[in-house]
Amino acid sequence: MSMLSLVRGRGRNEDENHISLEGPSPECHDWLQKLRRPHEYAVPIFQGFISDDHRDEHPVYFRRNSVLHLALFVPWERFVSDTHSDIADIWLGYEASLCRRLRFHVSNISLLSKSAEDARKDARLWAITLIIILQSSY
């Protein structure tokens, strides 16, 4: 779920609702991240996958899984002011304090990741078995 949207800076300075967009591209300096207000509704839409690997080192999405977990399970007002900690550590701290119902959902994400991994392994084994069967029949 997106907790923010990108808006043009237009000379505006940072405040409690607008945070600078930092990056190597010069275009980043013209944009701000605007935080979603608590009363504004949002619908989570994921592209790709979500896993329980909170130390991921993806070259584009920094600590993507921790960010997604925080966005799904922790109101942003609780953690947005913590700018000095690692995002994975912030998530792990909040994960321990989640209610039982939310911990159940978090564990389901882990199970879905493991199920997808198992399905990939099964598909590889099936393909190898099929190749062996086809080779032995000729």
Question: What report would you give on this structure?
Answer:
This protein is 44% helix and 9% strand. With 138 residues, the protein is mainly α. The protein has two domains: 1-45, no CATH class; 48-138, no CATH class. The chain has a three-stranded antiparallel beta sheet with strand order 1-3-2, with no helix packed on it. α1 runs parallel beside α3 (87-96). It is elongated, with a radius of gyration of 21 Å. The model has no long low-confidence stretch (mean pLDDT 80).
Tell me the series of helices and strands, N- to C-terminal: EEEHHHH
Quaternary form: single chain
Radius of gyration using CA atoms only: 21 Å
Structural class: mainly alpha
Largest sheet: 3 strands, antiparallel
Spans where pLDDT lies below 50 across 5 or more residues:
none
Shape: elongated
Number of domains: 2
End-to-end gap: 53 Å
**Strand segment tally:** 3
Indicate the topology:
Elements: E1 4-8, E2 18-20, E3 31-35, H1 64-73, H2 76-79, H3 87-96, H4 100-136
Brief digest:
The chain has 138 residues and is mainly alpha-helical. It is 44% helix and 9% strand.
What attributes does this structure have?
single chain; 138 residues; mainly alpha; 2 domains; 3-stranded antiparallel sheet; 4 helices; 3 strands; 44% helix; 9% strand; elongated
